[in-house]
Amino acid sequence: MENLLRPLLVVGGSVMLTLVIGWATDFLLRKADERHHETPLWGLLRRGRIPYMLVLFAALLRGSYDQAELLESRAESVGRTLTLVLIGSAAWLVIRITAAIVETSYSRYASARAHRDPARVRRVRTQATLIMRVVSAVVGVVAAATMLLTFPAFRAAGASLLASAGILGIVAGVAAQSTLSNMFAGFQIAFGDMVRIGDTVVVDGEWGTVEEITLTFLTVRTWDERRITMPVSYFTSKPFENWSRGTPQMTGTVFWHVDHSAPLEAMREKLRDILRECPAWDGRAYNLTVTDSTPSTMEVRALVTGKDADDIWTVRVTVREQMLRWLADEHPYALPRVNTADAILPPSGHGNANANGHRPSQEGVPAQQRRYHGNHNSGRPDR
Question: Measuring CA to CA, how many Å separate 281 from each of 74, 201, 273, 278?
């Protein structure tokens, strides 16, 4: 009877005590979260209640197991299993607590500076993300190493592993040179403020927004919702455009090719009216000038401004569309035209007579050109 009650008391007591302590801790965290609405820390700490209860259960059962002298024939295996569970759940709990602290710090910083300095908020968000990845990796490696050291075979081989660590480190460094360079580039991006999550960038001619940054790769979401993934070392070794660096304000251009008779002053007034009705225009500046000309058209350029890349795109397409529509409705003559009429040659009396006053012979002249000389007084071809 004693052999049956003792395991039930040990296991059942550990389970009950774990549930009571876990419930009490969760109750206190919930009350603290309701009382302190300004910080999400207490609510985030509640996410770690499962690993917390695992740690409690493994620690209580591991401590009472030796005293209860249960399953003496398998005492070593059961004790090692409980130790492995305790190490794994403790690592899980450390990661959850660290994530709660980091996320709380970022939330406070973002709420305080979101309206004043959004670029710095994105920088802190990138750093927080990479810090959590590093902490998770370090805790996972330490937990795995600690689990392995619980086995005597690995402790015996520890001396030989340490002796060969130098050679293995050199070999691993040469083999993983690109991976290590990407990892260091990830740290450089995170703390060097080169590019941040949410930045608008142009990479290899592709315009998009930085969606994810890890220690080894970076993902850019393009305007048409494609994802471009590239190693982070690209951003430390090659030039790229970061439209969110510094101030997000931008100046955009709109070009038209119009006829030489286009009403420039009226176009300037129309540009002003279009911008005044466009919510995306930030009101800083606008301009319209002639930048080039050809024998048949002239190039007109409009400068417009916006508070960021999205708004400047909206302003440009709005100005381009409404200006073309206005020209077609109000000034159709200002649109480019292709002259398809026959060329009119100068009259024969202006330089077509020779020195003796005689008209040059038309022998050998094609009939299509010869017919222009039939009525030189009117300047029109014979019909």
Answer: 76, 21, 12, 6
Whole-angstrom Cα distance, residue 231 to residue 213? 10
Q: Is the pTM of this model over 0.70?
A: no
Phi, psi torsion values for 33, nearest 5 degrees: -70, -40
Express each pLDDT in 241-288 by its tens digit: 887 777 778 889 999 999 998 999 999 999 999 999 999 998 899 999
Tokens, residue 346: 């100068």
Dihedral, CA of residue 105, residue 110, residue 116 and residue 121, to nearest 10: 90
The 10 Å Cβ neighbour count of residue 111 is: 11
Give the C-alpha separation, 13 to 34, whole Å: 32
* Least confident segment among 54-58, 158-162, 225-229: 158-162
Cα angle, residue 182 at apex, residues 179 and 186 outer, rounded to 5°: 140
Q: What is the pLDDT of residues 60-69, one digit of tens each?
A: 887 776 655 5
CA separation for the pair 365, 259 (Å, rounded):
35
Q: Which residue has the tokens 């002003």?
A: 272
Identify which of 54, 150, 28, 47 has the alpha carbon closest to the alpha carbon of residue 104: 47
The residues that bridge with 242 in the sheet, in sequence order, are: 201
Instruction: Give CA–CA dist 304/315, Å, rounded.
Output: 7
